[in-house]
Amino acid sequence: MDEVIRRQITRRRFLQLGAVTAVAAACTPAATGTPLPSTGASAAPGGSAAPAGSGAPAGSAAAITGTINVSYPDEAGLKPKYVEQAAAALKAQYPGADVKIDLQKVGDDDFYTKLLLALDSGTGPDVFHVGGTSAGELADASYIEPLDSYVSQWADWSQYPDAVRSGVTYKGSVWAIPYGLDMRWLYYRKDDLQKAGLPADWQPANVQAILDAATAVKNANEPNVLPYALYAGPAGSSGTADHAFVPLLWAYGGELQDSSGKWIGDSPATQKVLTYYQNAYNGLSPKEILTETKPWTAMREKLGNGQLALLYEGGWVYGGWASADKAGTQQNVGYVLHPTESGGPSFTVGGPGTCWYISSRSANKQGAWEFIKAMNSAEIVGKLNAEDPHPVARQDAAEIPEFKSDPYLVASTAALSKAKFVAPDPGYSKVIEAIQKVTASVAAGEMSPADASKQYTTYLSQALGADKVTTQS
Amino acid sequence: MATTAVAANARRRSLRRNRLYLAGLTPAAFLLALFFVGPALWALASSFTNRALVGLDAANPRFVGLDNYIRLFSDPDFGRVILNSVVFVIGSAIIGQFVLGLLLALLLDHAQRRGFLATSLVYASVLLAWVNPTIIAGFLWVAMFDYYNGSLNSGLQLLGIGPVNWLGQGPMLAIVIANTWRGTAFVMLIFLGALRTIPTDIYEAARVDGAGPFRRFWDHTLPLLRPIAALTLLSVTIATFGTFILIQALTNGGPALQTEVIALYAYHEAFQNHAVGYGSTIAVVMLALNFAFAAVFLRWSRPRV
After folding, report:
1. Hey, which residues 215-244 in chain A have their CB within 8 Å of chain B?
2. What is the pLDDT of residues A199-258, one digit of tens each?
3. What is the rounded CA–CA span in Å between residue B277 and residue B260?
4. Residue of B255, B272, B274 lying closest to A291 (CB–CB)
5. Are residues A147 and A373 in contact, defined by beta-carbon separation less than 8 angstroms?
6. How many domains, in total, are found in chain B?
7. Would the ipTM clear 0.90, i.e. be above it?
8. Fold exhibited by the domain A2-182+351-421
9. Which of B76, B254, B272 minimises the CB distance to A233?
């Protein structure tokens, strides 16, 4: 029963996301009229939650002065020119303002830790750029500013569908502005699969079919071709959850939380997921994933050049392959939705993506907001997402030709109607740690799936408190 | 009456003498307090709180008594972490750095006394491992062991073998080898210095008495080296116990928990999982274990009669 309710909510959310799809791809005709979710996402309360400590009223035309410190991580090198463009636009509009950009060429995890240390010591930038799933824990720590009173006076906010808003809403307030949404694909190399006797338009009939295809690739004995890469362990970072454990759990009919919000530890679905891990790490997925620093670097590179046949990964990763070799990528890289235990490609894992936040300790919140507005103009959001492929967060951004003419972007946006989202919950980062530990134990061959599933309950209880954890049999 | 005056005089004299020592010690004591005692006390205080870098606990850190210690001692991974640390210390600090460093020092000392020309070459090459910053040393070994691009696997490929997943199949051995390579020079340097202080006539006398090389080492060299050996052992043990950069670069504790040592565990809890209070608890336990090592080694270093 509980599960049915949850499914309905999720389905409703899917349909709202269809609104985005409809604009960009005109492929979900029935979606737009669906009612709003009751998350309070639409509650841009008429200026009721005035941001503490900000002088000028939000959205006022008062001149912006002073320095705005912007800090963001970027390893791929796609964002800097747009950040510069936004800063230039802001400075042109407000000559008294200055934007100081702190580009950190480090991974998201390292950036986040550095940022938290700065925020914890009472310093840190005015504006920063981290994952939208962190909104809950950042808000709980009082590090970030609620944006309700800003967005309520921002006309463009109407371009953000409710499903997108709900991804950055926590305890009834909006905390961050997303630019592009996360979704994931099961990528496969058509050339490698064909050499293994599988069709170029391969469609897995169910989850097991992924392992079967990987086994076929392995048996084809192509030199330098790895059959499969499955994110696992702490080295896989949040990918171990979002690109592997979570979709597998959903594929096997499991859920992260029950209807009362308790995290589910040991369950039949958890055991099935861990059995899948055991099979995948029994000669199909390389164990180096457990010890490499940033194992995804090699995984992504190898899928791009045909040395890896199967990988479930973020939609944005396609951009790296396409920019290196567009024709080769279009010819050889296939992508399908995630299959389930008994059915073919049917869903993807959605997420709010990396978002822009304002520090609650910022001395220039109005300036910070103006920067976020400039950075999230329809033009920048459209162009950035066309280059760094994500479905756009604001609908009008998908109107630009670069976006509309790209079949991959159209397909990714359409896939959002099949996306299921992890509920925004500050406990999720602790859950990811538990997932990392148990998947590593099984992948390294140290623990049986059944034992690891029980250990998952133990880890969850230890990190979140036994009262917030349940099991299912 | 006279005796008390004498005693007071002696006290005054000793105070005057000690005042000089105290003045000399002050800068060192100040720096120690600032960089060691202060942070250690801060960690101790943090270990009784639920301090975190993010989430509700970051906004409202509070005193939680012994909760973190209770959690640590019921942590299903902690036993494994301690065992890994012990294996790593015995393997790389005691057997690796200490024994190998001592043997190298004996060999080089012997070679030097005989005027062997290549001595300085060997000396320099061992020293090179030590002068590298740890993170560089870590990356050097990653370049060696890496599965896809490592030089070991490239070499094997030339022979038509492999590739071997070095860090996956023998992760503990890999980090023990890397840390041994890194720290042997330090031990060798200390022992070379100590060996040079042993007068040659002791050995000559022993030789006249008919003692063989092993006997001379056991009866004369080793007892003379004991105080310095204990201090060296103490410092390499403590340094190895606290090693984390090298392991972080090589395996980051993986696969699973196979190379997760205590310093790495404290770091992961405090800065990766953002649980500063819990991470501090692990650090405090680590400090206590270091004190225990120090007590044992210092006791052993006392010259025996």
Report:
1. 233-235
2. 999 999 999 999 999 999 999 988 889 999 999 999 999 999 999 999 999 999 999 999
3. 19
4. B255
5. no
6. 1
7. no
8. D-Maltodextrin-Binding Protein; domain 2 (3.40.190)
9. B254
